[in-house]
Design brief:
The structure is a homodimer of 307-residue chains. With 307 residues, chain A is α/β, with parallel strands linked by helices. Chain A is built from twelve helices and nine strands. At the A-B interface, helix 7, helix 8, helix 9, helix 10 and helix 11 of A face helix 7, helix 8, helix 9, helix 10 and helix 11 of B.
Amino acid sequence: MTVMFERVALLGLGLIASSISHASRRKGLAKHIAGFARSAETRETAKQIGIVDSIHDTAAAAVKDADLVILCTPVGTYGALAQEIAPHLKPGAILTDVGSVKGAVVRDVSPHVPAGVHFIPGHPVAGTEQSGPRSGFAELFDNRWHILTPLPGNPPEKVQALEDFWVALGSNVERMTHDHHDLVLAMTSHLPHLIAYNTVATAGDVETVTQSEIIKFSAAGFRDFTRIAASDPTMWRDIFLNNREAVLEMLGRFTEELAVLQKAIRWGDGQTLFDLFSRARDIRRGIIAAGQDTAAPNFGRAPTKKN
Amino acid sequence: MTVMFERVALLGLGLIASSISHASRRKGLAKHIAGFARSAETRETAKQIGIVDSIHDTAAAAVKDADLVILCTPVGTYGALAQEIAPHLKPGAILTDVGSVKGAVVRDVSPHVPAGVHFIPGHPVAGTEQSGPRSGFAELFDNRWHILTPLPGNPPEKVQALEDFWVALGSNVERMTHDHHDLVLAMTSHLPHLIAYNTVATAGDVETVTQSEIIKFSAAGFRDFTRIAASDPTMWRDIFLNNREAVLEMLGRFTEELAVLQKAIRWGDGQTLFDLFSRARDIRRGIIAAGQDTAAPNFGRAPTKKN
């Protein structure tokens, strides 16, 4: 038990905030966790499951006296939220976030941050397809990467304190610029989600195949896409609206590659298909070797019982 | 223990054949399982792990006296294989297959099938990303769907006998035409694999993001694509070459939908994004309700230990 922050304020109480609370309590990293959520139902749930020590009706009240304030709402809300809390932030406090885009967050939040408060953007590369306070768990960040994108004015000791906190939550930490973050995540997260959503939407619109057939025969590949396409729609809308350039860039590359595959299929060019398919296995092996996925076949999914 | 076939011949000894053997032995469905694989190494492994009662250097030898012959090699090999075994098939035998396409299989195999042998095409909608005889397991087919695409001349009792065998292996069985099969699977399996392969290939070619970054930050979505993109390249090359029309049709629809999403991102049309993303959750719920996937978040993947 090492208290790293006297008072932590979590603004927004979904999967990530709830997991921060569980992981923090596992090690006693915060003396007091103050919480805020816009919805009364979420506040009630958070109180019931005990992920906050105090719950507040306004973000302004939640951040009072907090040494560490973490924005955990969809990124589209950050600008207004930062404006609202700005006058109430404690001098010397660290303000950070968990948004999946970083350039837009710097653009929206920075103008509101008062002198003496240290805004250090961050992004835990962890999550599940579930949402809401009940979906959080203490192990979410274990051995996952947390990206910090410090700003030029950040005092090194404040950045270090925030890094230490995320390491204590279970993460590995890497620092990079916010522009580079947005490129990397456009490829490893935003494009895959877009493609998954699009595949599921395509399946929903094929008039020659019934919905029941799509579901029955999903185990041959499709169901893996539906998992990440079950993620929170509001959160993902905001991500795409706020990382437009990088997503369009990766999407352009994806479409080019796809045209090559399409042509190979049309013309029966098996060698092009085989070569491209063979390359993919190496990346899979790298991910397993890096501890970022399980090597168990089928994600270790056990066969399900007959209904 | 109910013997359903005296002698079963498995031609090709990869994931599916090996799982058929394990599932069959779990219930004693075959008195003798004869195996053939073109590679000496695979034959040796199959012998070592005991998935066959006899192992043969030629397909012709393996099918001798077999009541049930199952083609378990990549679909591109079926034509030559059928031609090779045709003179050696036992009158009255059932010949089936496990190929992921069915129209092309009918085209390639049917001309070689001698009178008195019953060719009934089939496809177990089950699998993992792993290959080879060691990757098989008895539960692979449990509560998964097996699609039979009987041909007009098939005697009903033979189709029923094959259906009973797959049910005994753990499957649910559905019958449909081979054309419809190829459309359904183009959507639920072939398109997702193509998209997954393409996404992984795109990631491998982005010069502004390192391979190490792709791997480190894969947990945010990308890694789910790499699992199915780790499937056997030869098998998948053959599938795309042999279900060209249906795959190109689904790919066309996918590309149209993607253009709509791309435009919505470019023009900041959040409502279009939100509406499409919201639809995806329903299909996910349907798949879980149908027992075709686990509801555990993240596929129930436990967080991995720090290295």
